[in-house]
Design brief:
globular; 2 domains; nine-stranded antiparallel beta sheet; Cyclophilin; alpha+beta
Length: about 290
């Protein structure tokens, strides 16, 4: 069984980050998915957040989302809300993505089947672009995400395992299982005050894949539960119909699932500066 996750960043003078794998059942499930990942390409290997200046991060986010909108609307004018850099517009765009992309591996909408490949790619990227904009509007903590394009999200994470091994604390240098649904958790809906709530919008953490994210910040997610509880109360009928009575239901809690921990060899400030110069994942290996 592998003991370490190695992630290589950058093309020139690459930096290799080494992570000690954690001993828990969720890590074992994730390793099984990782063993299958080579059949699919690493998707958007430049999904780094918070490592640039505020101006750089803002320009990057707006440029990406405008390109997606232009490509989609040049094929079919489905995005009718003028782009504004605010949460309400981003909620609208995320809803467009959910409607026209389809859920998980169920890309069965008429639009998706008719659209040429560049438009499909722009629609898929719209989700990433929305989250990049949301990150800039928020605290934009240092992190990066690795996903494999087209890898099926067919495996489901047992709610018992979620409750037993999930945590509401994000720790510097920790690798976490990535949210693999198309939609939003209660945490996301409450944070965005999303009024486009519906069956396509609300998706608790259920499926998983090889996808993961790496955090370079600390956060206690317990602080989010009051606003989440308020949102659930405001939409009580909707959530009760889905078996969620309060924020302490496993399907509502803002849980994270740790997989590996960074082996730190330099100061954290030095490490962040080195990553900022190499915002591209070039290789992911296990040993």
């Amino acid at each position: 069984m592998p003991q370490h996750l190695l992630i290589e960043l950058g093309h020139d003078s690459p930096l290799t980050l080494r992570f000690q794998l954690l001993a828990n059942p969720i890590t074992e499930l994730w390793l099984e998915r990782m063993s299958q990942r080579d059949a699919w390409p690493l998707d958007h290997p430049d999904r780094f957040y918070g490592f640039g200046t505020p101006a750089e991060e803002t320009a990057r986010a707006i440029d990406m989302i405008k390109q997606c909108i232009e490509t989609i609307n040049s094929y079919e004018y489905i995005i009718r809300h003028p782009f504004t850099f605010d949460q309400n517009c981003l909620n609208y765009l995320h809803n467009i993505f959910e409607q026209y992309h389809g859920l998980l591996d169920q890309q069965n909408t008429r639009f998706w089947h008719r659209a040429p490949v560049p438009v499909r790619e722009a629609l898929a990227s719209l989700n990433i672009a929305v989250h990049r904009c949301e990150s800039v509007l928020g605290t934009n903590p240092h992190r990066f995400v690795c996903t494999w394009y087209g890898m099926p999200k067919t495996q489901q994470l047992d709610p018992v395992l979620q409750r037993q091994h999930g945590t509401m604390k994000i720790r510097f240098g920790t690798v976490y299982l990535n949210y693999a649904e198309i939609g939003k958790t209660v945490e996301d809906l409450a944070h965005d005050n999303d009024q486009y709530i519906g069956d396509d919008a609300f998706r608790p953490f259920d499926h998983y894949s090889a996808d993961f994210n790496v955090a370079f910040y600390n956060q206690d997610l317990e602080s989010k539960t009051p606003s989440m509880a308020k949102y659930i109360q405001e939409h009580q009928e909707f959530f009760l119909a889905r078996g969620i009575e309060n924020v302490y239901n496993t399907r509502a809690l803002p849980l994270r699932f740790p997989l590996a921990q960074l082996v730190e060899t330099v100061s954290r400030s030095t490490l962040l500066a080195e990553i900022a110069q190499r915002q591209h994942v070039t290789k992911v290996t296990l040993e």
